[in-house]
Amino acid sequence: MKKTFLALALLVSAVISFAQQQKQTVAAPLYVINGQIQPEWVVSQSDPGKMVRPIENLDSSTIEKIEVLNGEKALAKYKDAGKNGVVEITIKKK
Question: What is the domain range of residue 54?
Fold first, then answer.
């Protein structure tokens, strides 16, 4: 699970970085953690003066499951909010 999380985070980061280098706008996917839609940017837990994607605040050891939805599946479940894809993350219960 930890490898999947890291691979996903690296992929999202690489796409955003490439788009910024190309001066293009890339819309971020919708992040859903334990059924709750997350804002596009949140305050970093490690550096409160910095804004990060919600996935960057997660401790990978607490993740139970990650599911990526795109296309028709994302649109069917999240309507227009899912047009750029959806990353559904389930956190382990304590």
Answer: 2-91
